[in-house]
Amino acid sequence: MNMPARVKLVEVGPRDGLQNEKLPVPAAIKVELVHRLQEAGLKEIEVTSFVSPKWVPQMADAAAVMAGITRRPDVRYSVLTPNLKGFEAALAAQPDEIVVFGAASELFSQRNINCSIAESIERFRPVVAAARAHGIHVRGAISCAVGCPYEGEVAPERVELVARLMKGIGVQHMGVADTIGVATPLKVQRAMEAALKHYDINDVSGHFHDTYGQALANTLIFLQMGIWQFDTSIAGLGGCPYAKGATGNVATEDVVYLLHGMGIATGIDLERLLDAGKFISDFLERKPNSRAATALLNKRAG
Ligand code: HMG
Ligand code: MG
Question: Cβ(168)–Cβ(126) under 8 Å?
Fold first, then answer.
């Protein structure tokens, strides 16, 4: 097994975690969450999305959130940009990385970004070129890499196609995403193997939603493949407004507990992470959606 000694977590809570919340979360709360996450040792934070506010009202404050953050030089801040309009707005906010998000399923592409897979690549092409010309790193995401809420099972060949197209336009990193949390380990392994035909093992990551409780098992099989980068969300927040039935991302607390228990370094202080999770959960008036956080907070309470 080529299990990594160290893992990098990309905290997507402020973006994927909050994008689906019905009640508006004030920019100041989002900024405070980012601050608490970086205090807990997270070095990569996906802050927000420069998308249409008609499509995702919760992300309408993207510029204000980016402007409100007290940046740390050792932390990288990323934002989602679906098109040139989003990229131009993002540019003013000086992200370290942008994310273009496509899908392995045609219907999901239509529902999420209102265009076909082929059209999405043509939209991303100038975004990627502009970002790279500005020295901004470009990450890609392939949604519905195993299953789609509208098309059902998705074949690995679909993932391979999108990975090839994204590589062809200069996307530097590829996230394989189980948008609706239906994947199980062997299926997600096959999806990742398809992406690895075009991307180096050091340029891929896993993005798991935990709808069916499989996210930690899926994380483990990726670790066994030697993958060392994962997206996770504080307190298990998350869901895509265009992926009906999907629940939150795998909780950062659960993944950190898993990794530390296996002797894999993350640089994250689990106690401070718990505080960050409690902060946002208290604001949302619910308990953290994380087994590890629940157990550790109960232990704290004595
Ligand atoms: P569209 O309606 O086809 O866009 O939306 P359009 O180019 O025809 O423009 C229509 C209107 O939107 C115009 O305004 C544009 O100016 C405006 P109007 O003239 O009507 O007043 N507009 C924008 N405004 C702000 N920012 C922009 C922007 N672009 C156009 N960037 C579009 C196409 C892509 C914009 C839309 O479908 C959209 O915003 N989709 C975003 C959906 C989204 O954010 N989904 C969640 C994130 S993906 C996810 O969660 C999955 C992930 O976690 C991985 C996984 O789990 O799978 C990443
Ligand atoms: Mg997601």
Answer: no
Nearest atom in ligand 1 to the alpha carbon of residue 142 is 57
Residue nearest to atom 53 of ligand 1 (CA): 16
Residue 8: helix, strand or coil by DSSP? strand
Q: Which residue has the tokens 């232990």?
A: 299
| CB distance 205 to 229 below 8 Å | yes
Check pocket membership of 294 for ligand 1, CB cut-off 6 A: no
From the list 188, 189, 293, 283, the residue with the least C-alpha distance to 233 is 293
Is 38 exposed, middle or buried, given 0-12, 13-18 or 19+ CB atoms closer than 10 A? buried
What residues does the ion ligand 2 have nearby, CB within 5 Å? 16
Distance 237 CA to ligand 2 centre (A): 10
User: Is 208 near ligand 1, meaning CB less than 6 Å away?
Assistant: no
Cβ atoms 48, 30 nearer than 8 A: yes
Per-residue pLDDT tens, the chain, 302 aa: give them. Answer: 689 999 999 999 999 999 999 999 999 999 999 999 999 999 999 999 999 999 999 999 999 999 999 999 999 999 999 999 999 999 999 999 999 999 999 999 999 999 999 999 999 999 999 999 999 999 999 999 999 999 999 999 999 999 999 999 999 999 999 999 999 999 999 999 999 999 999 999 999 999 999 999 999 999 999 999 999 999 999 877 888 878 899 999 999 999 999 999 999 999 999 999 999 999 999 999 999 999 999 999 98
